Fold each of these.
Amino acid sequence: MKMTRRAFAAGAGGMTLAAFLAACSDTGGGNGGGTGGGGGEGGELTPVKLQLQWLPQAQFAGYFAAADQGFFEEEGLEVEIIPSGGDIVPQDALASGNADFCIAWVPKVLGSIEQGANLTNIGQIFQRSGTLQVAFKDSGITTVADFEGKRIGSWGFGNEWEIFAAMAAEGLDSTTVEIVTQDFNMNAFLQGDIDAAQAMTYNEWAQVLETMNPATGALYTPEEFDVISYQETPGGMLQDAIWADQGRLADDADYEATAVSLLKAVIKGWAYARDNVESAAEITIAAGSTWGPSHELWMANETNKLIWPSANGIGVIDADAWEQTVSGALAAVNEQGQHLITAEPPETAYSNDYIEQAISDLGSDVDTTGDGFQPIDVTLAEGGN
Amino acid sequence: MTTEQASLRTGRPRARTRGAQLRATAFGLLGIISVAVLWEVYKAVAPENGVVIAGTRVLPRTTDLAMPHTWEMVARLLEPTTSQAGAAPLWLTVAEAALLSLGIAAVGWLVGTVVGVGLGLLMQFFQVVERGLLPWIVLSQTVPLIAFAPVVRSWGSRIEILGWQWPQWLSVAVIASYLAFFPVAIGMLKGLQSPQRTHLELMHTYAASRWATLRTVRLPAAVPYLLPALRLGAASAVVGTVVAEVSTGYLDGIGRQLISFAGQASGDPAKAWAPIFGAIALGLVAAGLVGLIGLALRTYRRGEAA
């Protein structure tokens, strides 16, 4: 009897602690988008889960801006933005029904589609590849052809295919280089363990430029490096896109309507991030990004450059760019001799129907091409702080 | 209970004198200082590029990028996390994240302990259960966490009872408890089985019920086995929490902070060490809290040894 009571007390204590923690985490949450299901004054809002492919940062500024500026509500949506940053693979979360839409790079999802995931690209937000390969000036690596015999950095996890596609286009076999796996920072490159490191224009390139050069006592400058942009090579591939569940698009008219509404809100979000880049960077910091303000602003600005101008309208998939991504994915062979894909993806792998509908619905209210887009100049502080 | 164990226990001083306590604190501080001194001496003496033997680096680089000075790391802790207006000092940011993780680990440890003790009791009571369950318990720990964590998170995200939505931190706590229950279950079972046969037979001659035997012989005998198991469980819960936070993409804890500050280590090398210190402090506090349980059970253990 005594025992039972004691066990009960322990259980009750645990529950109290749990309730307390729940209260804590609710106030401390940094998920940006609304949480919790429906209810309240916006009773008819459609709940949507949008899975990102990494932690909150300005790479996703348009989505956080749409949440912050109420664009999702305007379109009748209650969007929960789910960050990744761990073992969550966005296209897997989408395929398994844990998310309604996801943001992911095209080559990674092409691999998943070939393995059976039934997904459709409904909006190609990034029109250009933001991947660079960065080498010190004295290393003599100025083109992909110079990779031969060198130590080439890559993050792996599906981020490496542009490297192999570009090498394949140069007739270089992946075994002719030593692939070194990079971690979350550029230390291995800066300390000479890697001859040419993979870097995104909006993130790792800034990490290099906000690091003190011990030889000069000042921050590294772009002049000290040779930079290869994959966008300029045949290996360049399409990156951040919005993916939907193809099966649900085919059977569920409500889901199709939700997709168009989501795209409309997202377009407005990215247009906001283009026209208010400082504010967009602040929004992502408030949404839980841990970068310093100068790094965040750099990221928001560089992300804009990958989107704007969008000649056909933001998110519209350019058939040539898609074809280049597919042929690069077919040609690429990694250092273990594996292929990303072995056959052309199905017709359903992308559709411009939804994004074109969204653009025409928005009409002249929103500038969806950004013809006059001018990036700003961002000065990076040490450590991005 | 062997005579050795009994004599050890009775030989232990009942309360530490004040001097002994001071000495323990001094030794603890000395340990920390000597690590810092070792760090600085290595940094000063070893070659800048570390030591590479046959293409493999056996000793790390000593550059400021790889090994910031200890005082820089401390100074960085006192500076604001970022230059954003209103940013908290770095130590506070780290402490908040570590505290949150500690809370999650505590829930995980508590659940793991309850489950572990329950399983231990069940296995002791019914040998069939022990035979059937023990292999599964062992097997459960071979499931790789990175495969397991997203599944738990995905299940959790679908749970909604009467408007109460499964919070994400609970998935992390469940994973922590999954690691924590194992040593507790094993330790509990071993402890319950530890009384000497003569003691059990004596209870049998008293016609004592299984319940009475459990209460007066088996449970007291289990305490010395259970305490280290609880400590192991606490360590597992902390590790599980940190890893599960990363795996499930939980944003507010120390695990995510380790990742995101590591990403800032090129431009701000000292900053990346702050969450590492936070994680160490977290582990120490968790171990200390479990140590308090040992203190609370001391009277119990004295009675049992007498």
Amino acid sequence: MTPKVVLVTGVSRFLGGHLAARFAANPDIERVLGVDTEPPPRDLLRRMGRAEFVRADIRNPLISKVISTANVDTVVHASVTASPAGPTGRTVMKEMNVIGTMQLLAACQKSPKVQKLVVKSTSAVYGSSSRDPAVFTEDMGPKDLPSSGYAKDAVEVEGYVRGFGRRRPDVNVTTLRFTNFIGPRIDTVLTRYFALPVVPTVLGYDARVQLLHSEDALAVLERATLHDLPGVFNVGGDGVLLLSQAIRRAGRLNLPVPSGAVPTVGGFFRSARLVDFSPDQMRFLNWGRVIDTTLLKKEFGFTPRWTTQQAFDDYVSGRGLKPLIDPETIDAAERGILDAAARFR
Amino acid sequence: MAGARVIPLHDPERDAARRSRHVEVVPEPEQQQSATPDWERRLTDLLSFARRRIAGDYQVDEFGFDRDLTENVLMPPLKPLYEKWFRVETIGLNNIPAAGGALIVANHSGTVPLDALMTSFGIASEHPAHRHMRMLGADLVFRTPVLGALARKSGQTLACNPDAERLLSSGELVGVWPEGFKGVGKPFKDRYKLQRFGRGGFVSAALKTGAPIIPCSIVGAEEIYPMIGDIKALARLLGFPYFPVTPFFPLLGPLGAIPLPSKWYIEFGEPIRTDVFGENAADDPMLVFNLTDQVRETIQQTLYRLLTQRRNVFLG
């Protein structure tokens, strides 16, 4: 079933905005509504074309009126986010994530026209610890979760979504558990992290990192909206990068920090407004996380175009990250040593 | 093989003939080329390895296994330990398939799990297919900084059924030491007495994936650090499962940490097939228990046999 009226939350951010733009470019969709608390940046707004922007807070019951008066039949909830709006934005972020989802779901439940719900969730719901299996499938749960932060928000959001699914069995609910996004255009905690000239890591740990290209993420969200594909799906690129390997590929320097000093260093980076890591993301730097995407390929019918490595390389070249040590210098050094060795023969 | 005859690898006559022919055919500069010293080739390898590492240009699988690092950095230091110190002899390597999933189940001993490292090195270097054994390790290993990261990079993963099944079904050779800390940290007086084999999780993983179980018996590892005592309070303080006391450790300090040079035998037994029990065999606890016992008995009997054949702990 192709949706007639689509409502997208979180359009002032990369994913929501570009998703709304894709729907606006689709002639089969009659109306596209984009909701967020603040207007999208101008270039994003221009991209969104005929999509209508509704400045509304999904924490406010007003959202219910928007959904019922516009005859919305498909809701794409893409506003659950890991990046707070500022150093003090964490409480606000939690409210937006959890209370916002509750309000939005309440509004959807009220409106009989709603036929489909697509939720952007995260693989952070699996947690990250040493006692976890190497690869998570959709039926696994977290071993232990931090008592706060994005991961907990996401677990709570998914809980409410499941509750909604039980109360409205006629609605197709698709929950997508994304890995971390990467790409030349998207701005996330991770893209800022790898852009630091000296990248702090936790001493003695090397996380396995799985990434998804932001274009693949958009394609998955679009496919979930245009087709009826209910269920919970892991979404991530093929393959794995080690954190140290990724830092090397980006040409950065690795600064191992003893685990005891990690909160201090994290605090410094937060106050310097460089990167804002929450405690659960710090744990991610210790252990990393890899998810199984068999269900995505077999049942959902989507294979990401970029592997983790390709997506990361695209990010590195797209951002124009210059390696600290020029690869040509290394090549020259290698040739020089070999020439010298040949003379000694 | 009626026509088979022995061809000596280094026949002095043939070697001489080849050398003379070599001089005749090859012109002067190319002969120099063929005489590229061994150290120079090694230098080339080393430099290209360094370049790959600096650029991050290598592949890591979903478990974090870094083949490039394992083969070039982590494995080579084990070679002298394997060949010169313990003089390991492997028996029945042909029981390990050249490809496809298989589960190696072995006895655990020696206070420090060197037996796992030696078995893994033995298969990687002496098996014709040079397979990398993917071992299932305790949670403690992966929680420990540095060690945990190294374990993942060398292909090890957490001992849990999802990981075991994923490895086996993707055709990997998996190694498991079901006695765990009970085996590796048992007192010297209990040497070569197999401890309880966990809950048989490894058998159900093999049953689910239809992978054969290869019993593996290791003799010699018990004597490297004869554990005569266990300081429980210190172990609790440090978060270790035990704190070993050997005749030389901690008495001689770091010197006491040198393992005794016992002579080792590692025997791989006949594979036990698990694909003959039908669809839901893994859900039959009785079958799982029986198979666990069968594997355990096989290893124990092989240990006894190897021990009766051994005349001296250090000379074999």
Amino acid sequence: MLKTRIIPCLDVADGRVVKGVNFVGLRDAGDPVESAKAYDAAGADEICFLDIHATHENRGTMFDVVQRTAEQCFVPLTVGGGVRTKEDVRDLLLAGADKVSFNSAAVARPAVVAEAADQFGSQCIVVAIDAKTVAPGKWEIFTHGGRKETGIDAVAFAKTVVAKGAGEILLTSMDRDGTKSGFNLPLTKAISDAVNVPVIASGGVGTLDHLVEGVTKGGASAVLAASIFHFGEFTVQEAKEHMAAAGIPMRLS
Amino acid sequence: MLTAIIDYESGNLHSAEKAFQRMAQETNAGEVIVTGDADVVARADRIVLPGDGAFPACAAALRGHSGLFDALREAVEDKGRPFLGICVGMQLMATRGREYEDTKGLDWVGGEVVKITPKDPSLKVPHMGWNDLVIDNPHPVFDGIQTGDHTYFVHSYQFHVADSAQRLAHVDYAGDITAVIGRDTMVGMQFHPEKSQDTGLRLIANFLNWAP
């Protein structure tokens, strides 16, 4: 049986982890590679890097981080942030990413998803959707870290990018991100029901029950979290055991 | 001992290279190189064929490197060199693929590669993530591996094997999905051993030390 995935996400800026990871025994808690290795050893099902200050000038540092991670972690790695063209996808794949995530660029020009999927296959193309509730049962896409309103319906957009070849949706509830009040479950459910590819729920996790709800009520295939793991509140293994106890199929090692 | 990972420009080989090199070093299994050179493939002691993306594109890319394609066939078919296909590299071992269009495979293991259609319509395609293996037929590459061990899958098409004796393991996704195939000196893995943590590294080590 396919297991629900737990994906720790590391925000990276200029080659360093932004929200420091508070693991015991890390030589350098700011080094994304060290953090990724710790999560790999802890049984993470995948690891996600988000380059939050991606510019043309500092792309090289991210390639280096991805390359060093891929040399040492034999677990799937998704990389996002500042990905604009299929050439960006190619560069990250060659550096060692397994999946590459589009965000604002897919909103500005959805065709880029098809260009990348046609060349590299849907299996490695993720579209990250940042959405906020604008009315009950209605959600819109926001870009630029949630600051820029687009007026685009999130459910319709998800269908569009999947039709263009996205193999997975990384859905962040912008009105929940950082609140620790749980995923936006109606949004997660609406997107998960609308598309036939896996949906990763993100944004708002504060407790292990929130992870459970993302799957049982939101219909997510995977859950992504940052701070609850980074600050040592819970281990990946504790999260897995909690979800398994709630009846969700998990990979327990 | 030389293991050649074939580079025919169909996917990221960086992780595969590192994983095979690490396990070759740990088990004294010789040298591992990524190559698109037919001469290197011809003299390799074992061969790994990776592959990501669509079956027709991968098949065309492999055939497009004609020297490489011939060297691969000769090494595996005539000389019986141990061979491992990974993901689409495994699917290419089939008689034919039915992704977008009918495409001829290597026809090393009889069967077809068809779209995954789970009996439970709520299940997502691609089949993406960790699934637990059910071993159907014992094989040296399973040394230390048991039914219930997890490996990482990401694919939308599956290999329907004609002869059940050649299906070595499967996983459940509202129906069986072929996970490992094999005959003679050939094995294929639908999942990514280079992304499957300890279980995957063990499978790689087993292949590198397999002496059929």
